[in-house]
Structure formats: structure tokens, C-alpha cells
Amino acid sequence: MKKFVLAITVFLLVVACKTNPFTGQKTLNFYGNQQLFPMAFAQYDQFLTENKVVTGTEEANMIKNVGQRIAKASETWLNANGYPGYLKDYQWEYNLVEDETVNAWCMPGGKIVFYTGILPICQGETGVAVVMGHEVAHALADHGAQRMSAGTLQQLGAVGVAVATSGKTAEAQNAWMQAYGIGSQFGGMLPFSRSHETEADKIGLQIMAIAGYNPDEAAELWKRMKAKSGGQAPPEFMSTHPSNDTRINNLTAWAPEAKKEAAKFGVTTFE
User: Fold this and answer.
1) Number of domains in the chain
2) Is residue 37 one of the residues assigned to a domain?
3) What are the angstrom distances between the C-alpha of 19 and each of 13, 33, 128?
4) Which of 2, 37, 211, 244 is most buried, judged by most C-beta within 10 A?
5) What is the extent of the structural domain holding 7?
6) Domain assignment present for 209
7) Among the options 50, 59, 98, 135, which is catalytic?
8) Measured between alpha carbons, how far is 170 from 174 in angstroms, rounded to an integer?
9) Are strands 53-54 and 111-115 parallel, antiparallel or unpaired?
């Protein structure tokens, strides 16, 4: 049984890789678009039926317009860098939902929701572009599939621990499982999630710049986000996201690079 679990794990690691077009790195991915996207689209449609979608307002239209510009910029970059057709299975959709939560999210395949609660932090179209670029980047980099793949490996690891400790007392088995759970969460899953957020920040910054939005605004948005949080965020090592200060410093450092990338596409002035 131990050898079987190990063999399955090694097999998955060897065959389930996909190249991230923005970094050139191989990524962990057990789930193809044809498998994942229909599930994501169905969940998105269900969410919309259960929540108040804002339509026809200036803010709702802004969300859609910014989303379309960011998606077009993404396709422009991908086509120019040797990835034509990368977005063929994506079905972009952008909706504003009435909710005070300060958040936005993107399902695999390009289904995006902004909550009205984040709009005061955005303070206008360029701020929306910062958030939109970040969320679109998650979809482009297949972060949803990677998180699911990592979860699968975590579950396989738990099976391996259970098998390896099957001859021990129940107390010892529980201790080993608790240790594995804490170790895999803080040493694996949380850093993995933070790396995705950092990657989405960097990719999103470039995309928003190519779309004509000022990447300098990204750090400013996170300064407002920090002020909104009132310093109540958990320590970075316990969080799925980098700290506000880490994000502000990164985005400030990356903004000149994003402008240089945009200049390759003839974009030298920004909104």
C-alpha cells in the first residue's frame, strides 16, 4: 500500500505539469480546462442566482468595461509571446454584486465578481483595473487548478501517513496526523497560496499597464487597503495572502518594469 501511494504521487507529479506563460515555469496541475471550466461556470451561475447582481448602473458598466480592456490586454500579450489560442476555452464575464464585503474574485475560465464593498477602496476606474488585473491573472495562471492539485497531494499525503502509522496506537496515529496537518498547512498550502497571490500581483500589474492603466496606482490601492484593515491582519506566515506591507513594497518595485512591458506594445501614457 505504501509503495502504491508513493507510485501514484510520483506519477501525478511527473505527468501533471503545465507551463505558466508569464513565468515560463512548470506548474502543478492535475485538472485540464475541459474538466475544470464547466464546473466553475456552473458554480458561478449558481452564485449569481443566489446574490443581488447590480446591472445598468455606471459602476456596473465600469466593471464590465475595465474587465474587457484587461482581457484584451491579456490576449495581446499572450499572442505576442507565442501563446495564440491560449484563451480559447475562457468565457469572460464580469458582474458587480451588492455586498459590503471588501473583495473580488475570479473563477477558473474567467468568471469574475466584484463586491460593491471594494469600490470605495478602488476610488475609480484605475483602482478597479488594479483589482481586475490581479483577478484575471489568477485565471490566466491556472491558480484555481493548482490549488485543487495541491489539495489532492495533501490528501494523498494524509493517506500515506495513515498507512505508515497503521501499526501504532490510536494516540500515536492521531499525533502523527495532527503534526502532518499542521506541517502541510503552514509549510505547504499557505506558502503555496501566498506565492499565487504574489504572482497574480506581478502579472496583473503588467496586464493593467498594457491596458493603459497606471501601475503606480497598485501600491496606492494597497495602502488604502492597509488603512481599511486597521492593522488587524494575521501574521503573514498564518495567512493565505502576503501582508499589506509586502504587497505595497513589491508593487512599488515592479511598477517601472510593468511600464517597460507596456511600452513594448506602444503604451507610454497611462490613465
Assistant:
1) 1
2) yes
3) 14, 14, 28
4) 211
5) 2-263
6) yes
7) 135
8) 6
9) unpaired
CA dist., res. 93 & res. 9, Å (int): 36
pTM of the complete model: 0.80
Residue 218, exposed/middle/buried by CB under 10 A (0-12, 13-18, 19+)?
buried
Which H helix or E strand runs over 95? strand 93-97
The sheet that has 53-54: what strands, in order across it? Answer: 53-54, 93-97, 111-115, 104-107
pLDDT digits (tens, 9 = 90+) for 192-212: 467 788 999 999 999 999 999
Residue 207: closest CA among 90, 105, 199: 199
For residue 68, count CB atoms less than 10 angstroms from its CB and return exposed for 0-12, middle for 13-18, buried for 19 or more: middle
pLDDT of residue 70: 98
Single out the residue of 257, 155, 152 nearest to residue 210, CA to CA: 257
Q: Domain for residue 27, yes or no? A: yes
241 pLDDT band, cuts 50/70/90, is low
Angle subtended at Cα 67 by Cα 65 and Cα 69, rounded to the nearest 5 degrees? 70
Mapped onto helix, strand or coil, the DSSP state of residue 91 is: coil
Look at the chain and count its residues: 271
Q: Mapping DSSP to helix (H, G, I), strand (E, B) and coil, where does residue 114 land? A: strand
Burial of 61 (0-12, 13-18, 19+ CB in 10 A): middle
Q: At residue 88, does pLDDT exceed 80?
A: yes
Residue 197 annotated as catalytic: no
φ/ψ of residue 95, rounded to 5: -130, 140
The span from the CA of 123 to the CA of 129, in Å, is: 11
Give domain status of residue 66, yes or no.
Answer: yes
